[in-house]
Amino acid sequence: HTKTNPLLRDRASPSQAKRRKTPPTPVIPLLINHILEQIFDGASFKDLKNFRLVCREWNNVATKCLQSTLDFITIGCRNISHIHSLHYSNFNQQRNNHFFMNQFPLSSDNIPLVTHSFNAEQLNRFLEVISKSTNPPFTKYEIVSSFFIPENEQLLQRFFQFSSPFVQDLKISLDNRHLGQFSPSFLVYITFPKLRSVVFEVHRQFELAEPGSEDTDSSNSDFGGNAVSYRILSSISLGATNLESLEVSLQRKCDGEGQRRYNQDGTPNFERDRRAGQGGGGGCPCQHFDLSSVPTMSILNSPSGDSSRMETSIISLSPIAAAAVSCHLPLPITGYQSTPPRISNSPKLKKLHLRLRNSFIHQTCVMSLLERLDNTLEELCFTEEGHGSPVEVEFPTMKRLSKLTISSICEFEQNFVTILPLSYSDQLPILESMNLWDCFGTEKRYEQLFLSTTPSHTLTELVFPSQLRNVTLAQNIPNVFPRLKSLTMVFSMRTENLAVIETVFQVCGESLEELHLITEMDTQNQNVDHVLTGLPKEICRKMKMEENFTLPHYLQEMTRKPSLNSLKKLRKLMFQLEHKYSRAPLITDVTGYVAFMEMPNLEYLRFTRYGMSWNCCEALAKKCRVDVLSPNANNVFEIENFDFDFEGM
């Protein structure tokens, strides 16, 4: 066929062409990858399927396009209760032997990724047909717990043997009730050279039991399932030589009460949790994993209430390049003897995400973990995902830590991360970015970050806590962060918030280059000219009514409050609505001419043109780049019809 197909005809080299006295064959554009990618972009599934049959070059590019539009293939029947944070479309259609060749729907940006779901018979047919391909488009698979039964061992072995050279993303959900008789020994001999992402979930179906009760007997426990789960994960992780991301969730699946043991007064009983976790000499299976070759890892761990055991299981992650640890409900794992974790002498951990769920972690545990990572850790994040997770953090000398994030899911949570007194030069010498936006609760939790005994000369990016209303902490910014370049803060009309904004305008004028103002609900439809310009409300009203935006002569002798004009070095100013349904504040021509136009270094402005004329917008566009946003997500036309009665002034 190559003699009749000009696209596949052998091209002679220049030297060969010279000897033959024939000109060299020109380069064919339709065989160049980036050109083919542009041509195939947006093509239908049917066309992409046909493109794969033309030649090797077309096959490679068309396969790549198909891989970007195909979602996970689900193997087994998924129980809806196992979905948790994974979002898939769950349908199970009958298909013939050529389903994957002929049943692709048309591609569209508005159509979600295509997902297939197979039972054992369909998977067998799928393997029979797809095994004939040397470059299959299917690279994402999810295997659910109900499929890990002895009857499917040979079928799963065939699947892994075929898919291992091609699979890139793998999700496995396990229920220990299904794993007692399953043998994953075949996985030891399989490698996954292209596997880059693994999500591994184990859902436990038992209640907490007191030590000595019949429920802690190994015959009634899920010990066999635990062992199989560990063997499956360890085999896959060790066989994936280029793994980039690993997320492990070992969590108790529970409904309603029984999640945690409580005293009669309603307070958590950590001692009973601890003793329950010790039933049968248990421990977290995570601490037995040896994953020193994994460059990125996300661990959602379920340790016992014992802080020493918690420490052991967390520190075992130190050889990994990135990890997310979620500590929550204590679990009894009976009949499972613990062994010390193997810790690498040269840890690679660069990113650590501590996700806290109803856990008590002792200060020494976190301190010990950070000490072991002081030479490698670059990013650290604390996230509170459940009530009652108190953590006190004392930093050792973190030689490489450049980014710190503290967030919470509940603004009423009082027991979460509390930062102890610190010295930036001694403990966080190269910190560059700090995000405290969702750090809810009392100011005592984060105030030490603004009261350091020594300044941070490296921090350039700061996100204020959304509830920061302490003027004293704001006044200390130039002392603690003298080189601050970018600041994100809330923009609210509350008196205490206005005082913080005014303080920032006053103390950050010599360093700040970027300012992000996130408007709260109380600013909607409110005129904010007096806040941004520093002028009295009556003067702003008079200037707007008279449409005279040059400061009158008598204002020359007036003392203006700190305003945007105080930020002499500001280059970027961005307003953002807190919620997509929030209404924007009123920013009129007064702010446009008196504040925006008078900022000497302003290069970029993003705001809602809610109250500003087009003439003023055009004048601003000549000064700097302007992005005008809609006042809200519902009624764009209200801009032109709004009656500027200035009642908010």
UniProtKB/TrEMBL annotation:
Pfam family, one: F-box
Basic and acidic residues bias (residue ranges): 254-263
Species this protein is from: Orchesella cincta (Springtail)
Protein name: F-box domain-containing protein
Residue ranges constituting the F-box domain according to the UniProt record: 31-64
Record InterPro entries: F-box-like_dom_sf (IPR036047), F-box_dom (IPR001810), LRR_dom_sf (IPR032675)
Taxon lineage: Eukaryota, Metazoa, Ecdysozoa, Arthropoda, Hexapoda
Classification via CDD domains: F-box_SF (cd09917)
Chain residue ranges for the region called Disordered: 1-25, 254-282
Superkingdom of origin: Eukaryota
